[in-house]
């Protein structure tokens, strides 16, 4: 499942390969306001755009739509029922999808920064 684990640091492996979660408000992109795109950390597939990022108040990067292929699956961990989202290309764990986002989709892709690689529009 985790094709890129040999090129990841230990905490990245925990999140991406073992479906972990990074701390809220203590991650690289939760408050990033720079224009650009967010790629999968493992395979560099484009996943999200800064144009669709919003401040959800949760402490993780949140998007209301994806620009790439995302897989969804059930997640029953931690005594909760959630929808896990993964990169469709490499199956890396990205985060979760919730139905409490803004218009026009009403969706909130709540994504771990460590699962992403940001590419600035200005570089």
TrEMBL record:
Reactions this protein catalyses: L-methionyl-[protein] + [thioredoxin]-disulfide + H2O = L-methionyl-(R)-S-oxide-[protein] + [thioredoxin]-dithiol
Keywords, comma-separated and alphabetical: Oxidoreductase
A GO MF label: peptide-methionine (R)-S-oxide reductase activity
Domain MsrB per the UniProt entry, residue ranges: 1-121
PANTHER family noted in UniProt: METHIONINE SULFOXIDE REDUCTASE, METHIONINE-R-SULFOXIDE REDUCTASE B1
EC number: 1.8.4.12
Gene3D superfamilies referenced in this protein's UniProt entry, alphabetically: Peptide methionine sulfoxide reductase (2.170.150.20)
UniProt-listed Pfam families: SelR (PF01641)
Protein name: peptide-methionine (R)-S-oxide reductase
Recorded superkingdom: Bacteria
Natural source organism: Caminibacter mediatlanticus TB-2
